Amino acid sequence: MTSKVRVDMTICDHKTLIDADEQPDGTVKVRIRSTCKDVRDFGRRLGPVGMEDYVQNTGSKVWKCAEEARLTPTCLIPVAVFNVIWMEVGMISKRHAIKEKNVCIHFLE
Question: Counting beta carbons within 10 angstroms of the beta carbon of residue 92, is it exposed (0 to 12), middle (13 to 18) or buried (19 or more)?
Answer without folding.
Answer: middle
